[in-house]
Amino acid sequence: MNMELIIKYLSELDKNNNREWYHSHKSEFKEANKEFEELLEAMILKIGTFDKSILQNNPKELTFKLVRDTRFSYDKSPYNPAFRAHISSKGKLPVPVGYYIMIKPDNQSFLGGGLFADMFKDATSMVRNYIAENPQEWEKIIYNPDFEKYFKVKGTALKNVPKEYNKEHPQAEFLKFKSWYLEYSVRDEELKDSDKFIETAVKLFEIMKPFNDYLNKALVNFKMPERK
C-alpha cells in the first residue's frame, strides 16, 4: 500500500479544510481511503496471529469519518485531516477495547489501545472496581519491562481518589482515572515504508494486548447506551 499517497491527501486537506475543496477532490479521497483500508486488512491478518477475536472484521467498517462535529467547538474546520480506525472483537465500538490507529500529517500519527471514552460512567466504574480488586495483575502488566519501554497509561483523571475507594490503595493513582489508554507516537518518516510500519505496529499491539485484555475483563458486562 502507498502510505505517501495517504499523507499527501491528508496534508492537502489540512491546507484546504473547506467543503468546496473536499467535494472537488473526492477521487483523491477514494484512492487514499483505499490504501488505508488495505493497510487495515494487512494489520488485521497479522494481529490475528495473536488475537483471533478480531479476524472477522471488514476494514470498511472500522474507519471513522473525516467530517467533524463543530457544534461545540471553537474550531469550525469541517474536516479532521486524519484516517482513523479501531480494531476490536466488535469492530470500531469503544467497548470492547482494541487497537487504535490514526494517520495524521505533521508527525501527529499514533498507535493506541485501551479505553479512550470517559463519558460512560458505567465503564469507568467497572474498570475502577476491577483495578481495586485486582491490583497485582494490573501492576504486573503496566510495569512489565516491554510495556514500560513503549507505553505509559494515560487518561482523564479526578484530583482525588473517589470516596468509595481506599486512599491508601496501592493503585490509588489509577483509581482517579476516568479513562485508561495508551498512545505511541509515529513520525511521518516512519510511515514511508509500509511493511516496516505494519511490523512495528503489530509488535506494539501485541505488547499492549494484556492491557486491553485486562480492561475487557473489567468491561465484560458493559452495554453501550442506547441512542435516544
Protein architecture, described:
The chain has 228 residues and is an alpha+beta fold. The protein contains nine helices and four strands. It has helices at residues 3-15, 19-24, 26-47, 121-133, 135-142, 145-150, 172-175, 188-191, 194-218, and strands spanning 83-87, 99-103, 109-115, 180-186. It has a four-stranded antiparallel β-sheet. Strand 2 and strand 3 (109-115) form a beta hairpin.
Q: Would you spell out the secondary-structure blueprint of this structure?
A:
Blueprint (H helix, E strand, L loop, with lengths): L2 H13 L3 H6 L1 H22 L35 E5 L11 E5 L5 E7 L5 H13 L1 H8 L2 H6 L21 H4 L4 E7 L1 H4 L2 H25 L10
Topology pattern, helix = H, strand = E: HHHEEEHHHHEHH
Low-pLDDT regions: none
Mean pLDDT: 95
Report the C-alpha radius of gyration, rounded. 19 Å
Number of helices: 9
Strand order, main sheet: write it out. 1-2-3-4
Estimated helix fraction: 40-55%
| Share of residues in strands | 5-15%
Number of strands: 4
- Overall geometry: globular
Structural class: alpha+beta
Compute the separation of the termini in Å.
40 Å
* Largest sheet data: 4 strands, antiparallel
